[in-house]
Request: fold
Amino acid sequence: MSELFEPLLRPYDERRRAELVAAYMAVEHAAEPVSEVRFAALREPALRRTVEGMLALTGRTLIRADQTRWISGFRDDVAAELARDPECVPPVRERAVLALVLIHSVAIPRAAGLLADDSWLSPYPTPVDELRRRTQLPVGELDAALRRLRTAGLVAQVKAGADDAGGFVPGPQFHRLTGAARRRLQEELILAAGPDSPLAAAIRARRRGRERDEGETA
Amino acid sequence: MTGGDGAASGGVDPRVLARARVRVLGVPVIDASEPVPEGTAAAGDGERVWLLPSWPDGATPALLEEYETAPMPLDRSGQARRVLAAALRCCWTRPDDAPWPGAPAAVADVLEVYGGMSRGDADLARRWATGELRRLADTGWLLLDEESGTVRPGPRVALWAEPSLASLRDLLRRLPEPPQRAEGGDE
Reply:
């Protein structure tokens, strides 16, 4: 159907080629990072570089989840370009709902020492009541925003259990953040939650410094 | 900043950026006269063209099943599949052809077929199915025109490879028939 990948795949025999295609489709479409035990093209560094090359054709890159598991996500430079395109940015209501879920499900438990520092996934659901109260959105609009966020994999619903009322947690897309994207998100949350804190001042100073450096090299 | 080999201001190849955009936007639509970005698949109906992901060697995400790897989760996936099947039963009127672009069908007919496939409260089933039609339209599996009350196969259907269609044709033949309309073949 497409010649896009042909130059990268042509040098390989049929078996290798199938392994490359399987690894590519797996990291692009799986819900969670996939184990390299299952995918030869993720296990072997030379083949993995080719998977990386295939992903780069659409602006994506491999992300290592832990020692032996992989998934894909947007490259940082591509994500920055896409974020400048208003069509590619979700509407403000969806972003507001998502920010609330991140604050309740990740930032607060992390501050309490319940979550590891570098993860944006969380077992602590944000109750729907909390979203209703804090967003002040009419129920219909909140429901529509949650529906679209769920479809996009940005939030996931947790059914009510014996001990809690259920609610929403960050969705599987949060597996797909690069290290730099995770850091940026962490900084944004600090800037939003404590704009007058010393930590926020340090982040702003570091960003000013980085912009100055980039200005000089451009 | 002074150009170079087609580099954008951020240094990202504009062809790469165009493909990345297609992934972010889902199934974006362009005018048939606009160029399709290189390295993107497309499904057109004469007037408009929908941009689709391009996958290597005819693979589809169904490949994940062979590797027992869970795909991105879909809420109420069984119900979504049944509603999509009911819609195809009505829109894929010439099963020997490809399902894309298919023909428009009345939403009422799709709900009728869906009702015939499900047990229990018929009103409730229709309400669920109506929500499901919207969700399938959001994700490019169907094209829904709520004003005229019609639905058509969505551009994603064009990604199905011919060899995978046989079992789908068999399945659809076993579903309830859509209600017969007096005025046949209206567009």
In short: Strands of chain B lie at 29-31, 41-44, 48-52, 105-106, 142-145, 150-153.
